[in-house]
């Protein structure tokens, strides 16, 4: 047994336990406390396994689930960036790159490079695995917000056009799940949980990664 390698792996395992202390804006279903990043990542991974049949392209499930599980690890250092905080988003990439250098650097070089590559693949959102993982990242808070009576949407005065701008990434991974989200948005606009769009428009490109990190 390579004791140095094992110690590096154990150091990383203990370090990522800190993800449980990074709390998001989204609250648990039923109006409970705010969820943390680790819970969000676990939920995404389970969703990916259960909803894989709705992906628009075949993908490697195990690889995609691992991508879900590690995609927010950098927030241990970088913190969670609120989806509509434009000022915070200007520094998000730099903060997350520095965090990735440190955190993935705790692992043995081969494993650190593998996880860093998955993190960057998720960020790019190009491969089938990344597209569906990002769809899960967008869908998960929508489901929670809908289940808690739209409380987070109301609390932050979120508009329909803001949500739809972010959800174009979901459409790239699953048209079926994008249509489900549109139905949820319609229902919550009617209920007054989501404000009507500031002006009618159609999203024309996927939003930046920083906009997919929290309240959808």
Structural class: mainly alpha
Element string (H = helix, E = strand): HEEHHHHHHHHH
Span between N and C termini?
A: 45 Å
Number of strands: 2
Stretches with pLDDT under 50, minimum 5 residues: 200-212
User: The CATH topology, please?
Assistant: Hypothetical protein af1432
> If strands are numbered along the chain, what order do they take across the biggest sheet?
1-2
CATH class: Mainly Alpha
Shape summary: globular
CATH architecture: Orthogonal Bundle
Q: How is the biggest beta sheet arranged?
A: 2 strands, antiparallel
Number of domains: 1
Domain HD: 16-166
Biased composition (Basic and acidic residues): 201-216
Pfam families: HD_3 (PF13023)
Organism: Pseudoramibacter porci
Which SSEs are present, and which pair or pack?
Layout: H1 3-15, E1 23-27, E2 34-36, H2 37-51, H3 61-70, H4 75-78, H5 86-104, H6 109-124, H7 128-147, H8 151-155, H9 160-173, H10 175-190
Antiparallel strand pairs: 1-2
